[in-house]
Design brief:
The protein is an alpha/beta fold. The protein has two domains: 110 residues, 3-Layer(aba) Sandwich (Rossmann fold), CATH 3.40.50.720; 187 residues, NAD(P)-binding Rossmann-like Domain (Rossmann fold). Helix content is 33%, strand content 14%. β9, α9 and β10 form a beta-alpha-beta unit. α1 packs parallel to α11. Belongs to the D-isomer specific 2-hydroxyacid dehydrogenase family. InterPro entries: D-isomer_2-hydroxyacid_DH, D-isomer_2_OHA_DH_cat_dom, D-isomer_DH_NAD-bd, NAD(P)-bd_dom_sf. Keywords: NAD, Oxidoreductase.
Length: 323
């Protein structure tokens, strides 16, 4: 068996690989540095990566399994995967960190923390010190009705973190009955009756543009926190709903435009979200902390080791639902 690592590898990853080489001498562990990409792909049985094109999948003629060292699997070519009947597993060990980041973003947004920080740096005060009126109020998260759209690993961690705030939580889950209850598949009812909406869904062909113009413009006075993928929300409609004052505010960690090797400094959207005072912007770093990164690495090797020993799969991704 040959295992090919195409993900970013730091010293911890390389040390883990050496341990696996010593433990399983009959398995070949390769990285990009061990040959041409075409040759490595052709001989790989398992590939560890978060991104793989149809061209690369078809070149990997012996490929049986892709292990994604993170939760998101939307950067894989699923048509080619289904065609070649390749198995895919992913990792969820960063869910606690993404949930924590979502709480931080919510508190910053409702508490107007970033907005007031920016003003005070230029000597502009708000609140008691300048006899500010109600326009200077911030909003408490305590006892708010909260909708969590997507109740997987991140959503469940988020619900636990919200417990001390005495929030009333309604979770939206595809497999739940369409009833008006704590767990429901009725997205529109859940949004309509909530004050704060967290989006923790995977990006699939079903969830892309789920928050379209019609849905966003019904969210008058609500706060939105997105830690999933930008493409779940209509980009132009999201900007307009915020600039027109329909949404009370949004905290956004996942975007529409990302840096590239050719252009590292880039705004995250075609629309000027950076000019809006009711937006908290975060550069897709929900799980970007040492604890989460180490957890994802360990989980990747646990999935790989179980597959080497037993052929069994952990965290298998459904190729039809793509999550």
């Amino acid at each position: 068996m040959q295992v090919l690592f195409l993900n970013r590898l730091n010293d911890e990853w390389l040390q883990k690989m050496e341990q696996m080489k010593n433990k399983y001498p009959h398995v070949s562990f390769k990285t990009r540095q061990d040959g041409t990409l075409d040759d490595l792909l052709r001989s790989a049985h398992v590939i560890v990566t978060g991104r793989l094109s149809a061209e690369h999948i078809h070149k990997a003629e012996n490929l049986r399994l892709i292990i994604v060292p993170m939760a998101g699997v939307n950067a894989l070519d699923w048509h080619a995967i289904r065609e070649k009947k390749i198995e895919v597993c992913n990792c969820h060990s960063n869910a606690f960190a993404v949930a924590e980041r979502a709480i931080a973003l919510a508190l910053a947004l409702l508490g107007r923390v970033v907005e007031y920080d920016r003003d005070l740096r230029y000597g502009v005060w708000h609140g008691y010190a300048v006899r500010g009126g109600e326009q200077d109020y911030w909003t408490s998260l305590q006892r708010k009705r909260v909708c969590i759209v997507g109740f997987g690993h991140i959503g469940q961690n988020l619900a636990r973190l919200l417990e001390p705030f005495s929030c009333e939580i309604v979770a939206v889950k595809r497999s739940a009955p369409k009833v008006k209850d704590r767990v429901t598949s009725d997205l529109d009812w859940a949004i309509e009756t909530s004050d704060v909406i967290f989006i923790t869904l995977p990006l699939t062909k079903e969830t892309k543009n789920l928050f379209n113009r019609e849905r966003l413009f019904k969210m008058k006075g609500k706060f939105l926190i997105n830690v999933s993928r930008g493409e779940l929300l209509d980009e132009e409609a999201l900007f307009e709903s915020l600039s027109d004052g329909v949404l009370a505010g949004a905290a956004i960690d996942t975007w529409y435009v990302y840096p590239s090797s050719e252009k590292e400094c880039v705004l995250p959207s075609r629309f000027p979200f950076n000019t809006l005072r009711n937006v908290v912007m975060s550069p897709h770093v929900g799980g970007y902390c040492p604890e989460a990164s180490r957890g994802l690495m360990n989980e990747t090797f646990e999935i790989l080791e179980k597959y080497i020993l037993t052929g069994e799969l952990t965290n298998r991704v459904d190729p039809e639902w793509e999550y």
